[in-house]
Amino acid sequence: MEKNPKFDDIRPYYEDEIPAAMKRIASSDVFPLLANFVYPNEPLEAVRERVGNFKTVKEFQHDTMRRVNEQIIARSTTGFSCSGLDRLNRDKQYLFVSNHRDIMLDACLLQYHFVMNGFDTTEITFGANLMMNPIVVDVGKSNKMFKVERPGGDIKAFYRSSVHLSEYIRYVIKEKKQSVWIAQRNGRTKNGIDATDQGIIKMFCMSEPHNKIKALADLHIVPVSISYEWESCDILKALELYESQFTRYIKKPGEDLNSILTGIMQQKGRVHIELCEPVTEEELMAYDHLTNNEYHKVVAGLLDSRINSAYRLWPNNYIAHDIRYGSKAFSAFYTPEEREAFEARLAQLEKYEDWDVDQLKDIFLGIYSNPVESKSVNKI
After folding, report:
1. What is the pTM of this model?
2. List of domains in the chain
3. Residue 247's pLDDT is what?
């Protein structure tokens, strides 16, 4: 299809831009470090030549990015599973709306699952704040990532960027014939409570403002639920939530990069992704009588119900709930050894002795125990 310059400010690379991007990646200063992680048993110069000669997105994704995920799964998980592919039509494009627990891995692991099962990968939203340097931009845009601006103080500018994003998502699905992955909210869930931002649903509708049913039905929304046995960046999230109680939290220099690297390297235990039942036009029609605001709210609630119902609870979730509420209600769902391992991780917070450690621990426990409450409320 023809290129559309309207979206040049946010789009991923076109196919004819890949060869130059691959050469830049292969010649970058950090390439030896990346090559050692992704291709640990191959000579550096052989890897440099291999990556530098990729000509297509598919080559990059099916070789390098596939191996990235294989290394992450092998080094930092005890199992990775995904279910729900049978709910998808291989020849149809979807808008995958996912809960968001890790900056990179939520979307990255899903792409890996698609590659391994012969499905096309999706385009992926990528926060403008994460495009920290040229190699991150090259890797991201070669991996079908497109830029999303974070909300700022300028309301008019944010509205314009929201309309632009909405138009791009519709363009990708309807004209480029590609699927899209987007998080259910701006930024990661830090307290363990997965909730779809009503504003995200409003944004989807901006590019089809005269028919709210068609606006969403055309996008073929599929809720996605990802759950980590050991929550990504759990201690970092607890510290941020603690600080946020007393002051407006401002990210420190390099914090996003630290979260990305921690998410990749931290032990995650088992990881599961569930592709939930797609939202149908028939379901949406039931809300046709609602005002736009009510419609956005109820659709967000529909996604929440599916995401939370599909969320896979692990022993750590039940352990945290029992500890937090001084109960043994869920003791049948974990072993003494699993509880001991969780308590050892909880004890790591005791080194923050200048803080209110009990409060810090309660926040940490909430990260793991809140999904138990959410699943109970949304259980179908």
Report:
1. 0.95
2. 80-312 (3.40.1130), 316-378 (no CATH)
3. 74
